[in-house]
Amino acid sequence: MAAVLLFALSYIFVARAGMSPFVASTLAYGIAFVCAYFAQRGWTFGASHSHGHALPRYLATQLTCALLAGVVSHLAVHGASATPIFMSVVSTAISSAASYLLTSLWVFPQAAERAG
């Protein structure tokens, strides 16, 4: 759901609001961040990690991914002359994959929880 929100907001911010691709995608990522943290902690990873442990790591992960989304969007539009819709697809796919990997391996590591 957060990826859908990221996709929609980044497209709307560029195509309708006229924002730069970097600002639009970074802002969209920030908005999706709030929804995603609570959904991933509670639903995806079973709320077994304390906020004190998970939130700082999640914030660092998502700040990194927000910057990645901004850079990918900028390069897609200004380097490859991509349309806003293609920019949104590429940015969402790359930042979502990076977010999933970092979140599952570092923020909410299931294997470490079971072993501890």
Can you summarize this structure?
It is built from five helices and no strands.
Q: What's the helix and strand layout?
A:
Blueprint (H helix, E strand, L loop, with lengths): L1 H14 L5 H24 L6 H30 L3 H24 L2 H6 L1
Helix pairs in contact: 1-2, 1-4, 2-3, 3-4
Percent helix among the residues? over 70%
Quickly count the domains: 1
The major β-sheet equals: none
**Cα-based radius of gyration, to the nearest Å:** 15 Å
Structure classification: mainly alpha
H/E order of the elements?
Answer: HHHHH
Morphology: elongated
Mean pLDDT: 84
Count of runs of 4 or more consecutive helical residues: 5
Unreliable sequence segments:
111-116
- Gap between N and C termini: 31 Å
What does it look like?
- With 116 residues, this protein is mainly alpha-helical.
- The protein has one domain.
- The chain is built from five helices and no strands.
- The termini are far apart.
Please tag this protein with its features.
5 helices; 84% helix
